[in-house]
């Protein structure tokens, strides 16, 4: 279960590395993922939300018994 969100994390990093926040402004991944700026594409925002829900599901006892949805 610890690695169930790893694929989402890798996709999020790949998506963020293609944004202007990383390329032009030279900010860190954590800064760009946490910001709500127009520099981040809607695809990256969707991946961020999905990754957040995946990590939250690891803490939720009901989800831990059933397993994470999706990915």
Automatic annotation (TrEMBL):
<protein>
    <recommendedName>
        <fullName>Cytochrome c oxidase assembly factor 5</fullName>
    </recommendedName>
</protein>
<dbReference type="GO" id="GO:0005739">
    <property type="term" value="C:mitochondrion"/>
</dbReference>
<dbReference type="Pfam" id="PF10203">
    <property type="entry name" value="Pet191_N"/>
</dbReference>
<dbReference type="GO" id="GO:0033617">
    <property type="term" value="P:mitochondrial respiratory chain complex IV assembly"/>
</dbReference>
<comment type="similarity">
    <text>Belongs to the PET191 family.</text>
</comment>
<keyword id="KW-1015">Disulfide bond</keyword>
<dbReference type="InterPro" id="IPR018793">
    <property type="entry name" value="Cyt_c_oxidase_assmbl_Pet191"/>
</dbReference>
């Amino acid at each position: 279960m610890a690695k169930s969100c790893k694929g989402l994390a890798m996709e999020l990093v790949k998506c963020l590395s293609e944004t202007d926040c990383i390329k032009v402004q030279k900010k860190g991944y954590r800064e760009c993922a946490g910001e709500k700026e127009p520099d981040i594409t809607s695809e990256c925002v969707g991946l961020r939300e999905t990754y957040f829900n995946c990590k939250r599901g690891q803490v939720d006892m009901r989800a831990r018994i059933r397993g994470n949805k999706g990915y």
